[in-house]
Amino acid sequence: MAVARERNFTRAAELLHIAQPPLSRQIQQLEEELGVVLFERGTRPVRLTDAGRLLFGQAVQVLEGVDEMKAISRRLHEAEKLRLGIGFVASTLYGRLPEMIRAYRAARPQVELTLLELNTLDQIAALKDGRIDVGYGRIPFDEPAVERTILRNERLVAAVPLRHPLSLHERPLRLAELAEAPLICQSALNWDPRSARKRDPLVRCVEGAFRRGS
């Protein structure tokens, strides 16, 4: 191949990092084995004979086929890798999610984990289009294409200044009382009335506060 491309025995030998005599002997042995002459040696530059051109064309196809098989093998190897895409809202990092990820990695070291920080609604879209395989969020939603499992229930706590009127109550606060106060809570992007449960009193409370411009 090198001699056919370079059309010169010396340059081909340099390209192959061998001396010219061994290269010439290898070509002679190949010609003897095939029973044909591959090169016209009396010409400058060296030219292929008809048999040489035929063999060169076949050799090129074989090498291209080998390269293609290598590429296919690499793609198959990549496809066989086990991957798990995990979506999460940032606040779950303060819970058990990091511990769960460490435990999973220890139990399944062959699985490549991909973590994506997404709000709950974006996680639903990512689950549906295959960007993630599982998501950890905090907002209830109704989506027939996504299976939802409650892992834990958490208490909601209202934090108010010491002199705030709501801090004077010794009893638990009612959500209706919070609707009249300015609220700092999760991003309004998470409170989509199309997906949040209308029967959820917290959703109604927050939506009412936003409608009042609080």
What are the main properties of this structure?
two-stranded antiparallel ribbon; mainly alpha; 44% helix; 214 residues; three-stranded parallel sheet; 5 strands; D-Maltodextrin-Binding Protein, domain 2; 10% strand; Arc Repressor Mutant, subunit A; 3 domains
Summarize this structure briefly:
By secondary structure, the chain is mainly α. The protein has helices spanning 2-6, 9-16, 20-34, 50-80, 97-107, 120-129, 175-178, 201-211; strands spanning 39-40, 47-48, 82-88, 111-117, 134-136. The chain has 3 domains: 1-78, Orthogonal Bundle (Arc Repressor Mutant, subunit A); 80-136, 3-Layer(aba) Sandwich (D-Maltodextrin-Binding Protein, domain 2), CATH 3.40.190.10; 165-211, no CATH class.
What does this structure look like?
By secondary structure, this protein is mainly α. It has helices spanning 2-6, 9-16, 20-34, 50-80, 97-107, 120-129, 175-178, 201-211; strands at residues 39-40, 47-48, 82-88, 111-117, 134-136. The strands form 2 sheets. The chain has a 3-stranded parallel β-sheet with strand order 4-3-5, with helices on one face. A two-stranded antiparallel ribbon has the order 1-2. This is Ben and cat operon transcriptional regulator. Keywords: DNA-binding, Transcription, Transcription regulation.
